[in-house]
Structure formats: C-alpha cells, structure tokens
Amino acid sequence: MFDQAVGDVHCRFPVEAMSPKLTPYLLVAPLLAFIAVFTYIPIFTSIDLSFRSWNFMSPDMPFVGLDNYARLLGSQSFWNSMSVTTIFAVVSVPLRLALALAIASYLKREAASSRVLRGALFLPTITSTVSIAVVFSWVFSTDYGLANAFLSALGLGKMPWLQDPTLALLVLILINTWKQLGYDVIIYIAGLQAVPQELYDAAAIDGGKRWQVFRRVTVPLIMPTTYFLLVVSVIEAFQVFTIINVMTRGGPAGATDMLVHLLYRTGFVLFDIGTGSALAVILFALLIVLALLKSRIVGSKVHYEA
Amino acid sequence: MSRKLHTSIAASLLVLAVSATAAQAQTTVTFWHSFNNANGRALDEIVANFEAVHPEINIEAEYVGNYNDIVARLQAAIPANRGPDAVILEVTRYGLFADAGVLADLTPYFDADPLKDELYDYARQIGVIGEKNFIVPFNSSTPVLYYNKDVLARAGIEGEPDLKTFDAITTAARSVNETLGAEGITGIAAPGQFARWGLVMANGSDLIDPMSGEILLDDPKTLEAYEWMASLVTEGLASADGVTEEDNGRDAFLAGKVGIMMNSTGNYVGSRSALGDKLGVLPMPCNPDCAVPIGGAGIGIMATSQQDVQDAAYEFVSYAASPEANAIWFAATGYLPINKNSAELPVAADALASQPGIDVAINSLPHAHGRARTPVVTWMRTTEYDMWQAMALGQRPVAETMTQFAADTRAEAARLGN
Amino acid sequence: MKLKDKGLSALAIAAGIVFLSPVLYSIWMSFQTAQSYYTGGFEPTLGNYATAIGQYNFARYLFNSLLVSGLVTIAGLAVATTAAFAFARFDFKGRDLLFGLVVATLMIPSHITLIPNYLTLARAGLLDTYAGLVLPAISNGFAAFFLRQYIRGIPKALDEAAYMDGATPLQVLWRVIVPISRPAIFSMGLYIFLGEWNNYIWPLVAVGKQDLYTLQLGLARLYSINPGEGLIDWPLVMAASTITILPVLFGFFLVERHLVRGITMGAVK
C-alpha cells in the first residue's frame, strides 16, 4: 500500500523529471523552506521590531532607534529577571548534576532493579510540564497540599511555599530538578558505560576504596559528559516557561519572573512588541554565546560516543 | 437499496437543507464575557431569553476569563483579525481600544434607543469618552465591605461592627487574628485591585485623575493608602495567598476562613449563598472621604464586524441593559441596577426584600465616582498587580515602589500619546 | 534470581514509587469525589472524568492533541528524512552551508521567534486553525541531523545496487534507506511526537478558540479558572491532568528503549 503511494508520488513529483543536479536541492527544499519561514526570517523580524514602537493595534510602527533597549536595560523588571534566571541556573544546575552523577554511578549496572529505577526517574522527563505544574501546585498549596500535610505530620507549621518569594523560586528549582533528573541520569549512564572497565580494574587492583575510585577515576573521566550536561542545563534554565506560567505567573512579586516569562509578559500581556522584541534579541545573543560554548565542547570531541 | 430507504434518505436530506437555510438566515454574534459559575448561569439565562425574543439572532457566548484575560485576548486578536463581535470590557480599560479605533462608535445606536433615558446617569456615563459612546453598561458595581458575623462575634465583636476607618478595620482584623488565628482564620482578605482603588479614593486621592488625566500614583495620600493596605499583609492580618491570586482571598472568605473582605458588590449573591445569614455587608470605609469607584463593565461592539452583525449585536447589548434582563442580573448577582425600571420588577423587588445587604452598594451611589479610562489605564492596571505584590510581600518599600511606578506610568502615557 | 537481587528490586520499586508519588497520588485522587477529598474520606467515582469530558471538553482536547502531534510527527519526519537523505548521499554545491543552517537551528530557541511567528500566522489568517498549530513545528533540525548521521552509516553499496537496477533517488530513499533506518526514524518520531504533545507556549499564543485547545492548554486553563465555587476542585483538575499524561505513560511502557536510545544519541549531537 505504501509502495503504491510512492508510485503515485513518483509520477507527479518533479525530482526525477529534472536534471540530476537539482535532485538534492529539491530534497532539502521543504525542510529549508520551513526553517527559513519559521526560524531565520523571524530573527530578522525580531531585530527590526526591536527598533520600533508597536502595541498590535496602532496602524503604524514608528522607528524609535534604541529606545526599547534603553527602556529594557533601565527597567527594574529586566534586571530582576536576569538575576532570578541566574540564581535559578546557579542553584539548579549543580544540584541536578551532583544528584544525577551519584544516581547514575549506582544505576549503571545492568540489573533489574536499576532498570526499574531508571524507568521511574525517566518518566517525568517525558511527562507533560503542564500536568507536572498542576500536580505540584497542589503539592505545594498552603492549605491542602501534600508538602504541608507532611510538615504537620512532623509537628511543624505550614509553609507558604508559593507565596513567599524565596520559597517559590526554590520550589520551582526543585520541580525542575525532579523533572529533568532522569535525562541527566541517562546521559551520565551512557557516559559511565563508555569508561573502559580496565581503568576501574586497575584502580581496584591498586587497592582504591570506592569513594577514591569515584573521585580519582570516575569524576575526571566523566568530565566531558559533565561539561555537556552543564551547558545543556544552563541553556534550559534560560528557557524555563511553562511551570512559571502555570504555577506562579512570575510572582510572587517577580520572584520567579524568568527571562522567557518576561518575554511572554512583555509581548502578550503588556503588548509592548518593541520591548518584547528587544528582549528576544538580547536573549538570543545570550543563548548563542552559551550554544557556541556547547559546540566548542562537543566539537573538541571530548564526549564519549557510546 | 429499497425504495423506502431512498425516500427516507431524501426526506432527511430535505430536512437538513431546510434547517441549513434557516440557520443561514440567522445572524450569529460572537460574544466574549467574563462570567462563570453563578454569574455565568445568570448571563446564560439572559442570552436564552434574548434569543427567544429574537429568533433571527444567535448569540455565541464564550467565557474568556477575567477582565484582564479579555483585554489580553482582545489585543492579541487585533493583528489576526480574530476578535469577537461583542465583548465585555471593564469600565477603565476600554479606552485603549476606543482610542485605537477597534471599538465601534455606538453613539448613533444609543441616541436612537429609548434605553438611553432609562439608564441611571452614573451607569450611562461610564461608556462615554469625549462625546462618543463606546460601551453600554451591563454590570455595574461599587466595592462594599463584607464581613462574617460569626467570625467577628467569636472574636468578641458583637452587633454591627465599626469598620468606618482604616484604623477601625485594622483593630477588628487584629482581634480576629488573635482569637481565631490558631484555627487558621485570618482577620481580613488582602484587598483586590478594585478594592485597592476604592481605598485610595476613600483616603482622599485617586490613581489617575478622571478629569485631567493627571497620574496620582505618587500622591502622598495614595502612598498612605498603600502603606496601610500593605501593612495588612506584612502584619499577618491578611494571608499572602490573596496577594498572589486575588480570587484566593475571596474563596477563603466564602469558606468562612476570613473575617472581613472588601470586594465588588457583584460578589454579593455568591457570598450570601456561601455564608447565608452569617454574611454582613457595610459600605466601604470613609478615611475620611466617603468615595467609592464605579466598577464593572459594559459591552462594546467591534468596528471590524459586518454592519448587519453590528446591528444584531446592538440589539443584544440594548436588551442586556433592559429592565427585564437587568432585574434578573441584579437579583442573581448583586451587581447594581443600571436601569431605572428594573427595581420595580418582581424579581428585583423580591431580591431587595429578601436579601439583606444587597442594597448597600445602591445606597453608596451618591458618593460613587467614575474613574479615568485613558489608554494608559490598561497598562497601569496590569502593572499595578506586580507593584502591589512587591509592596504587600515586603519586597520593596511602598514610597520607592509607587514613585517609580508613577514615573513609569507617565512615560508610558507619553508613549501612548495621551 | 538471588535473594539479594530480589531485595534490591523491591527497594528500587519502592524508591521509584516515592519518587513518582506526587503523580501517582494525583491519579489516585482523580478517582475520588471532591466532597470526600475535602472531608478526608475516600469515595470512589468516575465522575471527575465524566465532568472533564462532558463539561470541560477534554475529549475534544485529546483529539486535538493527537491530531496536531500526529500531523507534526508525520510531516516533520517526511521533510527531515528527505533532507537527511540528500545531505548524507549527495554531493552538491552549498551542502555544508545549508546543513550548517539546519544544525544551527538547534541553538535557536523557539521562544525568540514567538512574536514574529505570531505575526506571520496572523497575516496568513492561520491563527486559530490546526495549520497554525502544525506549520511552525514541522521543521526539526535535530531530527534532520540525527537521521543524516544514521544514513551515513548505511553502506553506500546498497544504494548503488538499486541505482544499477534503474531506481530513481526517491525510490532508493523509500525502498532502501527508509527500511534500514526504521529504528532511527521511529526514535525520532517519538521524539517529535512527545515534544509536540507537551508543547505549551506556542499553542498558548496561537489558539484562542477553545475548540482548538490542546490538552496542555485545556489543563492549564481548567486549573486557572479554579473550578468549583469557593474551594478548588482538585480531584477534577487531577482527572484532567491524568487524561493529559496517560497517553504518554502508556506509550512510555511500550517504547522506553527507543526513547532512551534517541535521547542518548542526542547527547552526542
């Protein structure tokens, strides 16, 4: 049945009718067309809009030079957002990596028990972020949540998890860690499995204790994977949006207003398209720097190909 | 295939064709609104009644979310030209859309409509900017002060409490906290934005002067009002729950967990059905001014809709403000009567007689004022939520925050050219 | 199995359950009435699912999610596979530059294109349509990159034999490359499907009409409108949440291996 369909395509599709030189271009054309329309042209549109003033309604979009950038860089909300995003990255990334490496060293063995746990750890990675946000909104709700029920079972008082600025950011970091941990663990396991067993054997023969083997052999050898995960998770931290939008809307008092959420708010709540675009351009520049860092690391072939 | 089957298929096709033609003759008006739960059911009833009188018009009503959600969705819809035909717009936030030419000028309709003379002055004037009429009032409100008699009595405040000034409210809320705090009951709900605006007015100021458009966010009396409101939260008299999400404060009051709540009279019926006779209603404090804002919303019509759809939409807009519709709405929600003839209708008269306190808002109308509705108000209100959170949660001092906020609002107003 | 292994497995299962307990508990909660939830009893019911589907349109949202994710997956695989084939097998002018442009999209987060894409689709009249949800998600630089790597690993002799027999490039792609690459294509299909299933920010801005909501939007909205008058109806919200995650959970148990492979290889990108 599929062959039939291809036969049909074959009759109508122009690839073979043209010169063979054109064939590869026609094959890549659909993908490149989508990429051009939805990725590359928008970058230029963003840059253009970032020099204009527009609110979706006025018929014209006057050119305002660097006004939008000036307003953004002079605004309290931008610097708040930068600092919240930085705190998020600085706290969550080491937490994720340390937990993941510890768990991965334990789970790298091919035993039934580690397969079960790997599965459980991995599940949140592919679960809908909105569902996770909703479930954890309940877990951390003040009056009926699991977290406070747990605290009162221990005889402790209720915590205003999502109403206190510091706690709210911490809660989001924990949820994000919970969700992403499985990914980090799996990457670490792949990295660990690529470490030649002889090295461990050699270290063991030398009479190394487990902790020492871990510190002297595993940690240095796994460094490339760590670098990779470090960059990936920093980039991710700069893109957190869904849990914020569902759980806190950037509050309380801007304490969880990370960059992409500020971008969304500026564009689609305040409808300041110019400033929103300026923020997009700045975010783009930041992420390009991070991505180049990543490709340098990956490019230098320090990562183990499993 | 049997002949009989053929016949029945042909017959059903005919029926389909006929009903399709009938459907075509109907004008469909899409209508975005902000009412769910009990208020939503009252609106559904009004729509159904309208459609019964006007079978040629089909109102496709959609609950979009709160006033902010409507503003956001409407503004996002403009470049895509995917707005509704009629839309509920809050009385201070339609100026932006009127200014941009998004809303149809309803003046010709309204001038020819006998409704114009039936509406109370206070209601009629909310839809006017300059000489033009952009929205027709539907649900008008003022804030009132609700209290839970049971909670206050248990805190030792018997009879009608004295809650006329900020200090009196603080004192009452503190007694509730001290006696019932252990049960998880707090003195007062953090005031929502409508109540905050009202409290600023009660303190003798405003956020933006409705006449001159002058921004008063950093006026000393405005600061004083915000200092007091923030102190309710920072001193623990109000739960921070209601700061991050306004509705949480109301929900806690409805659940009997809060002593005092200042909120729109549109919450009257909901509160009454939740608390029954425990519900008490008082006017907002006078500190010293007795001044309350007129809130609520009216219905506007999109300038981009086709003429016949605009005509049909206006039929609905006019009906929604008629005595029959307004009486149902008033009795079912507690929003103010906007039509002089609604109070006489049995459904409204019954409500006035049987629902103690539903008239508090009506009685406060003599000192109710319209508010600014310049284009910058939309931006100012959206931003105010963040400012309030920062102050109420003790993240930033009030004076600094409001001074900055005032400067930003002036800059934004300049950008919008008003 | 040794006793020690059995013990470890039991421990692992227990640890897994603790780790997943919030989600597991939310599923459990979705089968009880709001009344019993607040009073502390347990009264089993399917009523929350009935309400989510009947009153809050979740059957429609499920259909929309399946349709949108399905279309994105099929179209995404189609354009990625043909492009990957060309990049892997043909030598043409500008190939490296074009491939570089494809790979560079991996570094460009979709959020940056949010406002411009909104405007593009608004001008094309495609907001509030399925096309508006599907089109911007079709190009997937990672899938193209991954499949190209995979195809390069397939011996060229196989193609050449087919060309000898008079096959056209499309026939080679369909009859030789695609069957051999099936595991890679399958992994990428899962990757694209999951990504789209869980997509939130784009549907959030591109869709206003509730008939076109995906599950993610429907759930976020149900939660934000705070169903239940007064106290939030958590069991109802959890039923909606369960509807949102269950299809993915089922899929997960079927294809965990493929997913993990896709993701691990992704790390080497």
TrEMBL record, chain A:
Its main location: membrane. The chain crosses the membrane at residues 25-47, 87-107, 119-140, 160-178, 225-248, 268-293. Keywords: Cell membrane, Membrane, Sugar transport, Transmembrane, Transmembrane helix, Transport. Residues 78-294 form the ABC transmembrane type-1 domain. The keyword Transcription regulation does not apply. Signal peptide: none annotated. One of its GO terms (cellular component) is plasma membrane. It is found in: Cell membrane. The keyword Lipid metabolism does not apply. InterPro entries: ABC_transporter_permease, MetI-like, MetI-like_sf. Pfam families: BPD_transp_1 (PF00528). It comes from the Bacteria. GO terms for biological process: transmembrane transport. It is a multi-pass membrane protein. Belongs to the binding-protein-dependent transport system permease family. This is Multiple sugar transport system permease protein/sn-glycerol 3-phosphate transport system permease protein. It comes from Devosia crocina. The lineage of its organism: Bacteria, Pseudomonadati, Pseudomonadota, Alphaproteobacteria, Hyphomicrobiales.
From TrEMBL, chain B:
CDD domains: PBP2_UgpB. InterPro entries: Bact_solute-bd_prot1, SBP. Gene3D superfamilies: Periplasmic binding protein-like II (3.40.190.10). Keywords: Periplasm, Signal. Residues 1-25 form the signal peptide. GO terms for cellular component: periplasmic space. The keyword Signal applies. Belongs to the bacterial solute-binding protein 1 family. This is sn-glycerol 3-phosphate transport system substrate-binding protein. It comes from Devosia crocina.
From TrEMBL, chain C:
Keywords: Cell inner membrane, Cell membrane, Membrane, Sugar transport, Transmembrane, Transmembrane helix, Transport. GO terms for cellular component: plasma membrane. One of its GO terms (biological process) is transmembrane transport. CDD domains: TM_PBP2. The chain crosses the membrane at residues 7-28, 66-90, 97-118, 130-151, 172-194, 234-255. The keyword Iron-sulfur does not apply. InterPro entries: MetI-like, MetI-like_sf. It is found in: Cell inner membrane; Cell membrane. The keyword Iron-sulfur does not apply. Belongs to the binding-protein-dependent transport system permease family. This is sn-glycerol-3-phosphate transport system permease protein UgpE. It comes from Devosia crocina.
